[in-house]
Specification:
This protein has 167 residues and is α+β, with helices and mostly antiparallel strands. It is 57% helix and 13% strand. The chain folds into two domains: 1-60; 61-163, Glutaredoxin, CATH 3.40.30. The chain has helices at 2-57, 75-82, 106-115, 139-146, 151-163, and strands at residues 64-68, 91-94, 123-128, 132-137. Helix 2 links the parallel strand 1 (64-68) and strand 2 (91-94). The protein is elongated and about 80 Å long.
Length: 167
């Protein structure tokens, strides 16, 4: 009898494996189609966002977005050293005030699309009409400065200000 139970269990596992393979074969095209649709939607979203930026921001001379928060690590430095040097047309968002952000704001949309989920604050985005945006992530440089290593922050700020044409 034990041999018979083992054979039945093997047959059952075989049926289960075949069923799983059949389901995988049937669902694979749907999963692939879903991944393709998400990729196309993101590409269209990026294109629409870039076109909106070109038609709304560029004609008024706006091409810089800077996002920061009220963190004691960088607030004073940003408000005294960075914000005053930004062009008057720059868009500035304070992450600490995000509950008051308009979900329809082009600045908010650009930030949410290009910032990602890591090291997104403080952040500078410089829009180029033909090349697309260039993103500057300041979080790590401020972390290093907090530990006494100020050179990465100075270098990143220099690259950022050079990119926006401010010396």
């Amino acid at each position: 009898m034990p041999e018979n139970c083992g054979a039945e269990a093997k047959r059952q596992r075989g049926r289960t494996n075949r069923l799983a393979l059949l389901l995988l074969a049937l669902l694979s095209p749907l999963v692939l189609l879903n991944v393709l649709l998400v990729g196309v939607a993101r590409l269209i979203g990026a294109l629409v966002l870039h076109l909106l930026t070109l038609t709304i921001w560029i004609p008024v001379g706006r091409r810089v977005l800077f996002v920061y928060s009220d963190s004691p690590v960088w607030k004073v430095h940003i408000e005294t050293e960075v914000l005053p040097r930004l062009p008057t047309t720059a868009a500035v968002l304070n992450w600490s005030e995000r509950s008051r952000w308009s979900p329809w704001s082009l600045s908010v949309r650009l930030f949410r699309y290009y910032a990602g989920t890591t090291e997104y604050n403080p952040l500078g985005i410089v829009v180029h009409p033909l090349l697309g945006p260039k993103v500057f992530r300041f979080w790590r440089a401020f972390r290093d400065a907090k530990q006494g290593k100020h050179e990465p922050l100075r270098a990143l700020e220099a690259r950022f200000f050079k990119e926006i044409g401010v010396s």
